[in-house]
Amino acid sequence: MSDNKIDKDQVSKDPVSNEQVLSFSSPSKVNQEKRNFLIAATAGVGALGAAAVAVPFVGSMLPSERAKAAGAPVEVDVSKIQPGSMITAEWRGKPVWIINRTDEMTADLAKHNDQLSDPNSEVPQQPAYCKNASRSIKPNLAVVVGICTHLGCSPTEKLQAGGDMGENWTGGFFCPCHGSRFDLAGRVFKGSPAPINLVIPPYQYLTETTLLIGDDTKVEG
Ligand code: FES
Fold first, then answer.
1. pTM for the model
2. What confidence score (pLDDT) does residue 71 get?
3. Distance in Å, CA 88 to ligand 1 centroid
4. What are the sequence ranges of the domains in the chain?
5. What residues does ligand 1 touch, defined as CB less than 6 Å away?
6. Are 93 and 70 in contact, with CB atoms under 8 Å apart?
7. Residue nearest (by alpha carbon) to ligand 1 atom 3
8. What is the CATH code for 74-220?
9. Is residue 179 a contact partner of residue 185, using CB atoms and an 8 Å limit?
10. 4 pLDDT more than 70
11. Distance from the CA of 192 to the center of ligand 1, in angstroms?
């Protein structure tokens, strides 16, 4: 708009005299409005900038906190696990089976050594204090990472003898992915695609019935 033209929005009628009236915003009012707008816009950009700086900073902190929590040892109360049954705890995002073997189950471990790929746990899939016949600290209580050593599926518990696993089955675990079989100490049966025994994690007992998975400083120390 040139200086000598009048915008129709600037024309109104006086309600008393019915004469046309021109209205203009004062320059100082316009400038103030511009200033207010610029201040608001600058503040908004500043806030966005601060958020953009803060997000990577927070992002760099959270994973380490999460990793710390995820890698921490896990305490488990084993007092309620009935003989012949098991529970699953989670440690470092992995399932850890805690199996309360009956005396009969524990005794059966020695009866099928000839059918196992590594009956004496020569492959270091367990801490030194679990390189024994039961692969555990207490003979009846097994602690095993429930991840198949073939391609990482989680095997299904088949704790009881016989059943759909056949009359010679004395209890253990079956991996449905490709058919690996493990006994109640996590030892792999010959002929399974899984090449080695299941992992025994580091652990120790804090009390008679409290297990600490992921920390064996007391045992090792
Ligand atoms: S992942 Fe268990 S048998 Fe293949």
1. 0.71
2. 83
3. 19
4. 11-71, 74-220
5. 148, 150-153, 175, 177-180, 193-194
6. yes
7. 178
8. 2.102.10.10
9. no
10. no
11. 8
